[in-house]
Amino acid sequence: xxxxxxxxxxxxxxxxxxxxxxxxxxxxxxxxxxxxxxxxxxxxxxxxxxxxxxxxxxxxxxxxxxxxxxxxxxxxxxxxxxxxxxxxxxxxxxxxxxxxxxxxxxxxxxxxxxxxxxxxxxxxxxxxxx
Length: 130
Description:
The structure is a single chain. The chain is of the alpha+beta class. The protein has a single domain, classed as Dna Ligase, domain 1. 25% of the residues lie in helices and 31% in strands. The chain has 3 helices and 8 strands. Strands 4, 5, 6, 7 and 8 form a 5-stranded antiparallel sheet that branches. A 3-stranded antiparallel sheet has the order 1-3-2, covered by helices on one side. The longest helix is centred in the N-terminal third of the chain and has 14 residues, at 4-17. It is globular, with a radius of gyration of 14 Å.
């Protein structure tokens, strides 16, 4: 697999379309950091790292609204292995006019676009969520 983050986003997208309560994703430290941001921003109910052989997995509890509508309406991969997308602190994208979030990989770790603006740090734009 050449792009594990794209696979991560696709698994979440597919689970939401199928109205699953949770989704299992192969473990990596970067995926855990992105999942923490999704939980902090209220896009998922929670997550649990499941130890196992040889790697383990991340079990993500998906969030739905009162009518069964999904909270995450869109996930897009911005920076890909074939085309990396970087932004300076003043160029961090606003997703849907501030209704969504951009997730950045910076020198100080993985953070949301808002946190990057607050700290004055740019970095690689991993994905956008709305």
